[in-house]
Amino acid sequence: MTDSLREIPLFADLSKRDLKKLGESMHEKTFAPGQEVVSEGDGGIGFFVILDGRARVTQAGVDRGNLTTGDYFGEMALIDGDDRMATIVAEDDLRCAAMTSWHFRPFVKDHPDVAWALLTALVKRIRSQRATEIGTAG
Q: How far apart are the first and last CA of the chain?
């Protein structure tokens, strides 16, 4: 697990010790093609990092794109405690590292570089979503 996590850009600045600690707090989950990983509107207690494979993202039945190795999801529901914003379905054999909220929050608080990377990614998602909304409004 640690070797796989080392390749994820979100965790690129972690020390070997912190990366090992992260790996110990995560567990591997696999999903078959077509299997739903998380469902829009459901409560969320898990954060997922894709170690191998591809997944499809939809919101309200609208295709929002693919996720692949190195991408992650589920952080929004863990940060604000609200329901899932999207449905994620495995496109092919999908292997993820998963972390529960009770491990995620302390880890992010103890690693400001990871918190900053998450914040940056969230802003990019919001900007991208806003651009899409503006584009379809005209």
A: 46
**How many Cα atoms occupy the beta-carbon half-sphere of 1 within 13 Å?**
17
Q: Cα separation of 81 and 30, whole Å?
A: 24
Cα(46)–Cα(97) distance, integer angstroms: 10
SS3 128: helix
Residue 106, classed as helix, strand or coil, is helix
- Per-residue confidence (pLDDT) for residue 138, from 0 to 100: 54
What lies within 8 Å, CB to CB, of 22 at 6+ separation is 2, 5, 11, 14, 99, 107
Give me the torsion for CA of 34, 117, 108, 32, rounded to 10°.
10
Tally the C-alpha atoms within 13 A of residue 131's C-alpha that lie toward its C-beta.
6
Most confident residue range from 14-23, 28-37, 113-122: 28-37
- According to DSSP, residue 125 is labeled H
